[in-house]
From TrEMBL:
Its cofactor is Zn(2+). Transmembrane segments: none annotated. It comes from Ruegeria haliotis. Gene3D superfamilies: Erythroid Transcription Factor GATA-1, subunit A. This is DNA gyrase inhibitor YacG.
Length: 60
């Protein structure tokens, strides 16, 4: 098995990574991804609400 970050041989202590540095890099990717997704969803929900308000007002 090789490190998913840099393809070096995995070290059992840090598996599936080769070092703490690569583990930290992967962790940072996960944190960035998990922070980005919820904020985008909130914006989408707000956009849907405003669109619904316009849809309600237009038929009148
Ligand atoms: Zn690595």
């Amino acid at each position: 098995m090789s490190c998913p970050i840099c393809d070096e041989d995995t070290v059992i202590k840090f598996r599936p990574f080769c070092s703490k540095r690569c583990a930290d890099i992967d962790l940072a990717k996960w944190l960035n991804g998990s922070y980005a997704v919820p904020s985008q969803r909130e914006e989408d929900m707000e956009a849907d609400v405003s669109e619904n308000d316009n849809a309600v007002q237009r038929p009148h």
